[in-house]
Amino acid sequence: MSKKSIRHDQILSALEVNPSIRVSALSERLGVSAETIRRDLAELDETGRIRRTYGGAVRTKAFEPALSERSKLHIEARERIAQLAVARIGEAHSLFISGGATALHFARALRTIERPLTVLTAAFSIATELSMNPLIQVMALPGFVEPKEGLVHGAETLKFIHQFHAPITVMGASGIDEDGASEALPHAAQVYSAMTSHADEVLIVADSSKFGNRSLQQIVDWDRNVTLVTDAAPPPRIASAIRQRGAEVIWG
Predict the structure, then answer these.
(1) CA dist., res. 226 & res. 220, Å (int)
(2) Percent helix, strand, coil in the chain (nearest 5)?
(3) d(CA 77, CA 92)
(4) What count of other Cβ atoms lies within 10 Å of the Cβ of residue 103?
(5) DSSP reduced 3-state for 227
(6) Which CATH architecture has domain 69-251?
């Protein structure tokens, strides 16, 4: 096997553990120049096995890990994000909540709330978590099941969402860049976009490993109704774009 093939396998192995990776990290890990890594990423991108992003690469849908795997990553960061997001929702009487690992951590933090709340979600894991609190009324959306993600989708899901409006949508994301938030799974992206269009405010809950990544489909643009809740300050270019478009960022 050639050195290049070995590097390609190592890059794919790294992306099986983490949903995204930086050129600098790969360069250090594999002991080759950043330019060599960029050429490797370009070749892998052409095969459809990864997708290049600004400064790195992300998995394509085929390499997107199951929710059970992703929920084991960045636990401390996601728990901090969850607490910040729970504080941010204030006295909202109802929420849309997306699927995803960080949204699941949010649901676990929200589960201890001591007031009535209605939650609409397409994610089985989130519905299960929140149903443990008798004060939370959970509305599980109908639709076809995506087993890897534990999420429903399809025309019936979208039709159901269009019947409701909530003050806030709390939504995870696969990528965060200067333009907004994006999602790697097309079926999920359709559901999440519908949720955001039927809410007054959108809270994007995403850890800092998503910075600089752009996934398959844009789901939210930065504007004055959007707040990014994360664990670290975004890079200057992303932070500037958020401010210029009137959005807000909270980290801790």
Answers:
(1) 8
(2) 40, 25, 30
(3) 24
(4) 28
(5) strand
(6) 3-Layer(aba) Sandwich (3.40)
Q: How far apart are the first and last CA of the chain?
A: 45
Query: pTM, whole model, 2 decimals?
Result: 0.76
pLDDT digits (tens, 9 = 90+) for 31-65: 999 999 999 999 888 877 788 888 898 876 545 55
What CATH number belongs to 3-63?
A: 1.10.10.10
Residues 166, 197: Cα–Cα separation, whole Å: 10
> How many Cα atoms sit within 13 Å of 128 on the Cβ side?
8
In terms of C-beta distances under 8 Å and separation of at least 24 residues, what long-range contacts does 138-143 make, across chains too? 141/191
> Cβ distance 106 to 97 under 8 Å?
yes
* Rounded distance between C-alpha atoms, residue 251 and residue 192, angstroms: 22
- In terms of Cβ atoms closer than 10 Å to its own Cβ (0-12, 13-18, 19+), residue 123 is buried
Rounded CA-CA distance 26/29 in Å is 5
**CA 65, 178, 199 angle in degrees (round to 5)?**
75
**DSSP state for residue 216 in the 8-state scheme:** S
Q: pLDDT of 128-185, one tens digit each?
A: 999 999 999 999 999 999 887 899 999 999 999 999 999 999 999 988 999 999 988 8
* Domain ranges, ordered by start, for the chain: 3-63, 69-251
Judge whether 205 and 237 are in contact, CB under 8 Å: no
* 42, HSE (Cβ side, Cα atoms, 13 Å): 6
